[in-house]
Amino acid sequence: MTTTLEARPLTDREPGFRRALAYEWAAFRTVRSNWVLVGAALLVQLLLTVFAHDSRDHGDVTFDKVLNVAWLFGALVGALGVNSFGTEYRFRTITTTVLTARSRTRVLLAKIAVVTAAAVATEIAVLAASWLVLAVFFAAAPTVSSSLLLGTGAVVYTALMTLVGLALAALLHGSVIPIAFLVVWPEVEMLLINRLDLPEWLLVVLQPFYSARRLISETPEWPHVLPMLGLAAVLLGVAGIVLNRRDV
Questions:
Q1: For a surface tag, which of 80, 102, 163, 236 has the fewest beta carbons within 10 Å of its beta carbon?
Q2: Do the beta carbons of residue 62 and residue 45 sit within 8 Å?
Q3: Cβ 81 vs Cβ 119: under 8 Å
Q4: pLDDT in tens, 110-156
Q5: CA–CA separation, 111 and 168 (whole Å)
Q6: 207-to-22, 150, 153, 182 alpha-carbon distances in Å
Q7: What is the crossing angle of helices 16-30 and 104-132, to 10°?
Q8: pTM summary value
Q9: Quick check: 8 pLDDT over 70?
Q10: Which of 15, 7, 225 is nearest to 106 (CA)?
């Protein structure tokens, strides 16, 4: 006997966000390139730590130097967000994902939750590994309070970059351009926009990535994260509208 949708239990007819979240987490874990990116981010951070350390420096100096350079490789973690939609369109599994979640909005929200958690966890692991290398192998443990301040800024910056990457991949149905944007645009801000003779407030708005990196400091300037937060929110909002209106 065939069971109609109306005859199914309510929990089966309305799987809800929890089911979409479980599906996205399973999908994230099975994409090999995600683990390659996580491993690459960890390897780069460790190499930067080893090469940046000078035996004459305190661990705080090295940790600060590493974080002020590591943003150049932030796209390694940011690409986790790009992968979330990029692999779906590449392998044409987005239709199955939508049918499973039975709501395109749930798909987007589940992806946001999974990649944000993955990016935060990855960045914390990367920072912890760097700190431990300095403490254990070089006997130059950075001050915990300073490390937490610097690390918090790095985690927030990386999470926002990941969300921007996710939104761009959803809008552009691919991975190449979003990843190129995450790699190139921060450089454009630093090398071009930052040199313009404009009012301070306008520079903060026009270079959201550069502004957000000012969080990576022992005296973080939290208002400067607003342009990047706004950029991520706007792109995700547009991605949600497009995802609900466009054929997948």
A1: 102
A2: no
A3: yes
A4: 999 999 999 999 999 999 999 999 999 999 999 999 999 999 999 99
A5: 13
A6: 36, 20, 17, 13
A7: 50
A8: 0.91
A9: no
A10: 15
